[in-house]
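To whoever is on call:

I kicked off a structure prediction for a single chain this morning and the downstream step that reads the tokens threw a length-mismatch warning. I double-checked the sequence; it's 199 residues and nothing unusual in it as far as I can see. Pasting both halves so you can look.
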Amino acid sequence: MALETYLDLCLHHGAEPSNWEKYVADNISEGVKPYDLLGIGESDFAKLANKQHTFEFYVMRIKLCQKVKCVWPGTYIAFLVEHDNKPHLEFGWVDVIDVKGKLCKVQCDDNFYGMRAFVISVDDISAILPCKERPLVYYKTILCNGCNQCDRSANNPVPPLCKHKGFFDAVLDKQVADAQFLVLYVKNNLTYGEKESNE
């Protein structure tokens, strides 16, 4: 019978993620790779060994993250990131994707240590969400061209004399409605493909 990976033990048998090093030391043998014992990939093991991630991060990733295969610039996502030695679920929009489609730069809704942009693995994406973070900036980029009556890089309301004011006001109203929708979307467990049982 195949030895259970440490990821399996954490997920199903209550093993403590922080004890991964002891598990590897106790079970390593010739021809067996430490990342195979743990149940993670080789590149993930390198991040674990270099303390870029804790093993708890990989346990939570299995619990939360769907198998997202493809994202595109402007996609609004929930993703797993680690700070303060703890994994956290954050929200933001995809800015840039690498040519191999394995990494992406995410503009995060919140600011951590003076940074708002993170480079993450596509594997760390928990869900693609049905809205945009800054829709007004998106439409200003399309419509405003050389107009400088307001800050085109900000999601603020436009001046009263803007010829697109009605449209931009409607975009902002929709953003408020999308935010309310997202709260209900998460509350009803639809974000992660789960449904509440009536049993």
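Update from on-call: the warning came from a stale cache, not from the record. Cleared it. Sanity check on the structure: Strands lie at 76-83, 86-97, 103-112, 115-121, 125-129.
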